[in-house]
Specification:
The chain is α+β, with helices and mostly antiparallel strands. The chain has three helices and twelve strands, in the order H-E-E-E-E-E-E-H-E-E-E-E-H-E-E.
Amino acid sequence: MKKNLLLIVIVFFIMDAYSQTETFDIASFIPPKGWQRIDSNGIVAFLNSKTINGLTSFCQIFLCPSHASNNSPEDNFRSEWNNRVVRTTGTNQIPKTETEKTPDGWAVVTGTATIINKGITYTCMLVTASGFGKVMSVLVNIAGQDYVAEVQNFLDKMELNGNAANDSRSNRRKM
C-alpha cells in the first residue's frame, strides 16, 4: 500500500513538472507539450507540425507583447489584424469576428479567416484582449484539424493580468 501511494505521489509530481505555468508579459499560460518554442523579437512562438499519409498539418501560436491602448476593443482588433496578419501575408480577407466581455474587465475580440499564402491554405485566428489601458494579442495559424483541441486548451488556460505592471490587485482573464 505504501509503495502504491509513493508511486501515485511521484506520478503527480512528474505531471505537475510537465504542466508548469509560464509568464510572458501580462499572460500566464501552460506551453503545449512537445512543441518547439521560439523567443524572437519580443514574441513567444510555439510551433508544431506533422505529416500523416502524405498530408501535412501544422500549428503556430504567437504571443505578442501587450502595449498601451485606450481604443475600443474593435479598433484594437482591426489595428492588430492589419499589423499582424495583413502586413505579413498580404491578405485582403476580412475576418469573421466575435466579441466577449468578461466579468473581470477584459473585452476579447476573436477573428478568423482562411488565408492562402504562397500556395498554403490555413486558418488564421487572432485573439485580442483589451482592458486596463492595454491590448494583447495571440495569433494562431493552423492547417488541418489535428491541433484544434490543443489550441483551445492553450487559450482556455491562459490568464491575463491587467495590473501586471501597475499594482498588486489581480485582474485575471482566461482567454
